[in-house]
Design goal:
Number of domains: 2
CATH class of the largest domain: Alpha Beta
Number of strands: 4
Strand order of the largest sheet: 2-3-1-4
Largest sheet: 4 strands, antiparallel
Shape: elongated
CATH topology of the largest domain: Alpha-Beta Plaits
Radius of gyration: 23 Å
Number of helices: 4
Structural class: alpha+beta
Low-confidence stretches: none
Oligomer: single chain
CATH superfamily of the largest domain: Ribosomal protein S6/Translation elongation factor EF1B
Strand content: 25-35%
Mean pLDDT: 84
Length: about 160
């Protein structure tokens, strides 16, 4: 078996798809994922949205996003299955960028470290609204002290 990777599967169903048909499609995806030894880590139904262009005579569709952990073979099988299912008018399976995952883990680690330091100092784990406001007032990025450039390149 190959290395387990994280994938995102998004598919669009016609706007008139019933809840039962949508649940049946999600169950088909679940069955394929489990058959290949993968797991669906999250499912997010984005609801009905306007399409960028008409697809199969539809101007709107229901978007569903699954985050899946599984082997590379799973990607090809999901693609093959969703191509023949009438319920999904478009779909895409992409591998989640490993750097993105590493960045998210690093950010979570920094946040946990900050909370731990705050607790050791006797403060609540999260900054209060006043602390956030004070920090944003001290921020030098608001450009209020920046002279900028004038037209013609003169300062």
């Amino acid at each position: 078996m190959s290395t387990v990777r994280q994938y995102e599967l998004i598919y669009i169903t016609p706007p008139d798809t019933t809840d039962e048909a949508l649940a049946a499609l999600q169950q088909q995806v679940q069955t394929v994922v489990e058959r290949f030894g993968g797991t669906i880590t999250s499912t997010d139904n984005w609801g009905r949205r306007r399409l960028a262009y008409e697809i199969a005579g539809h101007r709107e569709g229901t978007y569903v996003l699954h985050t899946i952990d599984g082997p590379a073979e799973l990607n090809a099988e999901l693609d093959r299955r969703l191509r023949v299912v009438d319920t999904a008018i478009r779909h895409m399976v992409v591998r989640v960028d490993e750097e993105r995952g590493a960045a998210e883990r690093a950010q979570a680690r920094r946040k946990a470290d900050m909370a731990e330091r705050r607790v050791r100092r006797g403060l609540p784990p999260e900054p209060t609204e006043n602390e956030r406001r004070r920090h944003s007032d001290e921020d030098d990025d608001n450009d209020s002290d920046h002279q900028g450039f004038r037209a013609g390149g003169d300062r």
